Amino acid sequence: MDSTLDILKKEAIEAAMSGNWHKGIKLNKKIITEAPDNLNSYLRLGFAHLQLGDLSNAKKAYLKALKIQPGNQIALNNLEKIKILKNKSENALSKEKNQLYLDPNLFLNIPGKTKVVSLINLGQISILAKLKVGQKIYLKIKKRRVEARTETDEYIGALPDDISKRLILFLKAKTQYISFIKEVTKKNVDVFIKEEKRGRKVRHYPSFPKNLQEDIKTIEEQEETGEEEIDKEETPLDLEKLAEEVEEKEYYPEAPLEEERDDFEE
Question: Do residues 42 and 35 touch, judged by C-beta distance below 8 A?
Answer without folding.
Answer: no
